[in-house]
Design a protein that fits this description.
The chain is an all-alpha fold. It is about 65% helix and about 0% strand. Helix 1 (about 1-20) packs antiparallel against helix 2 (about 25-55), helix 1 (about 1-20) packs parallel to helix 5 (about 140-165) and helix 3 (about 70-85) crosses helix 7 (about 190-210).
C-alpha cells in the first residue's frame, strides 16, 4: 500500500510541477518537443508504476457495503464518462494543452463542450467516482482518487494558465462555457460513439482485469 501511495503522489505531483512551475524552464532547456517528450515519458512511467503498485496492493475488505442501486449509478456515470471522453475528440477544444490556436476557429462551444469545457478531464473524474463507489477499498480510493484529483484540479489549473497566457480571447471563450458540467445535449454522434465505448468497456473489463462489471452478475 505504501508503494501505491508513493507512486500516485509522484504521478500527481510531477504533473503539476512539470505543467506549471517548471514548465517554462524545461521548455527553455529541452525545447517544446523535448519537453513534451520528457513530460510524456515521466507521466507514462509513473502511471505504469502506479498500476503495478495497485495490482500488488494487499487485499483489504471494502470500507462500505455496495448496494445494487450504487452499481446502477456507477454504470450511469461510466456511460456519461464514455460520452464525454469520446465527445472530447469530436470538437475543437481550446482547453486542451497546446490548443490555444484553435480559439480563432471556434465560433462557440459545440457537442460535449456545451456541457463542460473540460470533457476529457471530467470523464476521468466520473470514472474515478464510479470505481471508488463500487470497489470501496483503500487501494482503489488512493488510485482512483488520485486520478480524479489530478483531472479536476489539473483542469482548473489549466484554466488559470490559459487566462494568463491568452487574456481577453480566453475570457471571451470561457464566458460561453463552464468548468462544472451542466445538462446540455452533447450531440447524437457523441452519444452513439460513447455508448459503443461503454459497451466495449463492460465487455472488456473481465477479460483485462478479471472482474466482471456486467450488471446481470449482480443479480444471478
Amino acid at each position: 500500500m505504501a508503494e501505491l501511495i508513493v507512486a500516485m503522489a509522484l504521478f500527481v505531483g510531477t504533473h503539476f510541477l512539470m505543467s506549471h512551475p517548471l514548465r517554462a524552464r524545461l521548455v527553455r532547456t529541452l525545447g517544446t518537443n523535448g519537453f513534451l517528450g520528457a513530460y510524456s515519458l515521466v507521466s507514462i512511467g509513473l502511471f505504469v508504476w502506479a498500476i503495478l503498485a495497485y495490482g500488488n496492493a494487499p487485499d483489504a475488505p471494502p470500507l462500505w457495503f455496495v448496494y445494487f442501486p450504487t452499481v446502477i449509478a456507477a454504470h450511469i456515470l461510466m456511460w456519461l464518462a464514455s460520452i464525454l471522453f469520446i465527445g472530447s475528440f469530436l470538437a475543437r477544444n481550446p482547453a486542451l494543452v497546446g490548443a490555444e490556436g484553435t480559439l480563432s476557429h471556434v465560433e462557440g462551444p459545440k457537442g460535449v463542450l456545451r456541457i463542460t469545457r473540460h470533457p476529457m478531464m471530467w470523464s476521468f473524474a466520473l470514472w474515478a467516482v464510479a470505481h471508488i463507489a463500487v470497489l470501496a477499498t483503500p487501494a482503489t480510493i488512493v488510485f482512483s482518487g488520485g486520478v480524479g484529483f489530478l483531472a479536476l484540479v489539473g483542469a482548473w489549473a489549466q484554466d488559470q494558465k490559459k487566462r494568463a497566457l491568452i487574456g481577453e480571447a480566453w475570457a471571451a471563450y470561457t464566458a460561453h462555457t463552464t468548468y462544472w458540467p451542466r445538462p446540455r445535449w452533447p450531440g447524437l454522434a457523441a452519444i452513439a460513439a460513447g455508448t459503443l465505448l461503454y459497451i466495449f468497456l463492460v465487455w472488456l473489463h473481465p477479460l483485462a482485469f478479471g472482474a466482471s462489471t456486467r450488471l446481470w452478475t449482480y443479480i444471478l
